[in-house]
## 1
Amino acid sequence: MSLHRFYPIFDNAGWLHRTLPLGVKLVQLRIKDMDLADLWNAITQAKSLCRAHSASLVINDHWQIAIDAGCEWVHLGQEDLDTADLPAIRRAGLRLGISTHDHAELDRALSMSPDYVALGPVYPTILKKMKWHQQGLERVTEWKRAIGDLPLVAIGGMRVERAAGVFAAGADVVSVVTDITLSEDPEARVSAWIEATR
């Protein structure tokens, strides 16, 4: 399976209004704290926007809403895997991405036959406090060797200037958050990412 090589992650659907018209074709909606009604509205709005722009939408964590809303993709972290109903996700036909940070997590993820594996943080990240230090490009190469044809998503500390090295190390997809959301000109940054990942 082939995925678009540029994979931004946003915490609200407003970012999709701004970035999908620029050519984003794979995007994750990662919303952590929101009541159920607002979350449903955000996810269904994001789904409509992605459909209008022929983009693939990945829902982080909220697998039941992703099923109910008829979404294509769900992304689960290791903690999410503890409570997610994997058989229900598969019965609904959702594709699955899973976060990994060490060998045990990679083994666990591969046992669930995911549609992609994410590795992070490749570089130091300011997005959230993590117990894992930066993985580095050698770990990217190691992970790609371990998973073979399965798409490998690299995340954590990503900047346009690092894209070529991450791809050369073996990543198939680069996932980006703060390099866009904290940029003085997010639209220009998205355009630069699209150019760098063609």
## 2
Amino acid sequence: MAPSDGAGGWDDVRVLVVEDESRLAALLVQVLTEEGWSASAVYDGASGLAAVRAGGVDVVVLDWMLPDLEGPAVLQRLRAEGHAVPVLMLTARTALEDRVAALDVGADDHLAKPFEVAELLARLRALHRRANPSVVAAQRAGDLVVDPQTRRAFRGPTEVVLTAREFDILALLLREAGRTVTRYRILDEVWDGDTDIASNVIDVHVGRLRGKIDGPFGRNAVQTLRGVGYRLDPAGG
């Protein structure tokens, strides 16, 4: 069961901070610990990569600019290896193309520096909630199967590795298979309303999702209804 929001209820949630500014890293670990999280920090990309590979990490706060191996490179390797741990990318870059680049390599959310600690904590809580849903039965459309409990997705016997955001979009579309899901609903349920509907962030994630569950299998399950939203073919495409 996911812990409740608030101090004292997150002590079993392990947060890894990957940040080369030692003072900021120490501050984040201190704040997270005071809020009841279990937090630790490493200071370069290679150490962050090794820590996630070793297991025992529930959420990652990953800085973009790191010595030896930058955040996007770390994330690219983790996703290529099948690690679906939720990742919040910290970046001083605020241009749209930089935000899209972070999402393209597998970030589940991003936060621009400087930021308010309260917003960081809220985003981490949202990421963890989405990664740990209540127990529900597996859902399917044709040979496309999603198990919300284990957060695994399959095309027939083949497992499809998805990021936390991609999984949440797919689970929502599958729950509403055959019906149109508006961009506003995706924004509200997957992003908690915390992004700009005018941006192409949703489109980027849906495009990446389609590239994983449809393209390699010659299917067309996720359909775009221009100006409205998306629909998942109940037959699985």
## 3
Amino acid sequence: MHYFEELVRFLLERDGFWARTSHRVNLTKEEKRMIGRPSSPRPEIDVLAYHPRDNVLLVIEVKSYLDSPGVALEHIDAEFVRGEGYRLFKDEAYRRVLFRRLQSDLVDEGAINGTVSLIPGIVVGKVKGDEVPLEQFFAQRGWFFWGPSRLVEKLARTAYMGYTDNPFVYAAKLLIRNGFRPNR
């Protein structure tokens, strides 16, 4: 998963974000009790991406699922399933506590200012069925979503960058310059 998160970080940075991967949120014991997980380890955010111009911090789950059926709307929408997964999207109380602590810690660290807007999001490498319902679900909530089509499009564009010592750009250049053309 590390490399997929790094790919997402790289593509977000190309879009003007400052990004970091594998960020742990330092919830207090009281905050853990508030979310119903008094003994859980610190939650880990796959990718944090801050856009200074827009003063937005994306809090992103990254799921490749390339060799699985993929992510489906019913996995994420709390109206369909009330399981443990995708808590960032399905549990408003969890999201509120997590975001409050995350913002406080990052302000104390000097990484963001106190007026930043935190937006949950997901990047998925494979979707079960059609991406459109997921895109619509996230768009209706003002949340961030990149599905496989967007990832392929963004990665393919890196093939036209000038020289850079980056494995993602090398792979894109090899594919594009040898005849691969994405559908989108």
